[in-house]
Design brief:
mainly alpha
């Protein structure tokens, strides 16, 4: 459920804050609708990301890598 997802994301963000080895990207806010549910256009079955959802994730990872200086 969404509360569990938020709790796990919060735990992971705290766990990896300050890490020089792991970068945690919390993409939940980019993938949910105004009701806090995974956007329908980002997950055809409500669970697995569609091509559009994967594109959001890919863009976020590419941006993070650019900030880190990784090509």
């Amino acid at each position: 459920n969404n509360a569990d997802i938020e709790a796990v994301n919060s735990y992971l963000a705290t766990l990896f804050s300050g890490s020089s080895v792991v970068t945690f990207l919390d993409l939940r806010s980019q993938l949910i609708d105004t009701n806090g549910q995974l956007r329908v256009d980002y997950a055809d079955d409500g669970v697995h990301l569609s091509a559009a959802g994967r594109s959001v994730v890919q863009s976020a990872i590419a941006s993070a890598l650019q900030v880190m200086g990784v090509q």
